[in-house]
Amino acid sequence: MFESFTNLFRIPDLKKKILVTLGIIAVYRIGSFIPTPGIDGARLAQFFANMAQTQGGTLFGILNMFSGGAMERLTIFALGIMPYISASIILQLLTTVIPALERKAQQGEEGRKAIIQYTRYGTVVLSVIQSFFIAMWLENPAWFQGMQIVQYPGWGFRMLTVLTLTTGTAFIMWLGEQIQEKGIGNGMSLIITAGIVSRMPTALFQLISLVIPGAKGDSQIDPFKLVFLAAMFVFVIVAVVILTQGQRKIPVQYAKRVVGRRVYGGQSTYIPLRVNQGGVIPIIFAQSILLFPATIAGFVPHRALQGVASALMMGRPLYYVMYSFLIIFFCYFYAAITFNPIEMANNMKRFGGFVPGIRPGRQTAEYLDFVMTRITLPGAVFLTVIAILPGIINSRMNIPYLVASFFGGTGLLIVVGVMLDTMRQIESHMLMRHYEGFMKKGRVKGRLG
Questions:
Q1: CB atoms within 10 A of CB 193
Q2: Mutual orientation of helices 409-432 and 362-396 as an angle, nearest 10°?
Q3: How many domains in the chain?
Q4: Sign of the C-alpha dihedral, residues 173, 175, 178, 183?
Q5: Could you tell me if 244 and 152 lie in one domain?
Q6: Alpha-carbon gap, residue 330 to 446, rounded angstroms
Q7: Spatial distance between the Cα atoms of 449 and 443, rounded to a whole number of angstroms
Q8: Model pTM?
């Protein structure tokens, strides 16, 4: 393993890509500490510290996680990359609904560039809207238990905040595209991962503070519980890797065609159907829909709305029931809009491909839909268990939510998925230059053979 890491810097182009990626991530982290003008940072930090006591189950906790802590400091990168993610998801959904966008997406490289440009425009629009409402939110002392967060409220502050946060999001988007072009890995995903991983030192500090004996001579976490948490951490990472990499391979056989003196086709391949087709998107959708009304209701002084906010608080039975239902629903929903068995079956039939034992055309489409429906359910249940695990550890074992979030949930799924994809790209560069990859020799040789 150490030799493989040493070989990374023996390949000039790969070394350059890695250094560019690390440099851009460093720029992003520096920007996460530059404050937005006109904000009382100490009072805002106190507000988020109070919000953290609600077991992390607020919309602000999600935004803060994706921005790497920039939201609680309200820096120039406070919005993070969330507007870009939202714009990408919206464009992806609209592509399946609007025929013009669907035709544009099928035009190859030109169509892909057009969709990316639309995503950029959508990111800017969403950033302007979100930053304006954030400015209005900051100016209202009622949201902060009477504390004055903004020093000089008014339209000047609002326009400055909109300009600052929108520019910061656009700059993050540009940084991600630079990683995509000149670095290694998926730029946007690496930026999100950098923000999530940056919270790890704080989580470790909280965990150590719980282990060290206090004034009474006893620690809040006994050694057996600590060993159990370490074993669970390893188990969850292995489970997330299995979930991320899991797929059902549908064998496909192509018939032989004779054109002149040449014979085409005749080879066998397979269609990989992912167990977790939606990735982390079902969790993001479920969290946003479930926590947004609960967060808003928590600030409205009405008994019924306060009851709703209390019932939907993380750790309550209704929260876990609704959360699980929404994750499973969005797993099927996202699989339905991204996987088109009819189009896939028609393409196979057009090029002479067929699934052994299944008639081409309609029966192939029905078979693919049947298999996709069956493998989505265990994947959705597995994803649900990983998603609710941090809340259970937080409430049952009295572990801080920041520490518990590394035992599952959105953050761990993103980090593991991005790391696997990045290592896969690095390994492909190393194998192209005849260097040993990160995998074992037997597996690499077997795969090449």
A1: 22
A2: 120
A3: 2
A4: negative
A5: no
A6: 37
A7: 10
A8: 0.77
Q: Is 449 exposed, middle or buried (0-12, 13-18, 19+ CB in 10 A)?
A: exposed
Q: Each residue of 13-23: pLDDT tens digit?
A: 888 888 999 99
**Residues 384-400 pLDDT 10s:** 888 888 878 877 777 77
In one-letter notation, the amino acid at residue 11 is I
- Measured over the CA atoms of residue 139, residue 145, residue 151 and residue 152, the dihedral's sign is positive
The CA-based angle 64-67-55, given to 5 degrees, is: 20
Note whether residue 369 is domain-resident. Answer: yes
CA distance linking residue 112 with residue 209, whole number of Å: 49
Mark out the alpha helices in 312-434 (DSSP H runs). 317-338, 341-350, 362-396, 401-404, 409-432
**Residue 354: which of 251, 231, 233 has the closest Cα?**
251
Cα–Cα separations (whole angstroms), residue 312 to 51, 59, 225, 355, 393: 15, 12, 28, 47, 17
- Looking up residue 27, the CATH number of its domain turns out to be 1.10.3370.10
User: Could you tell me the residue range of the domain that residue 232 belongs to?
Assistant: 219-407
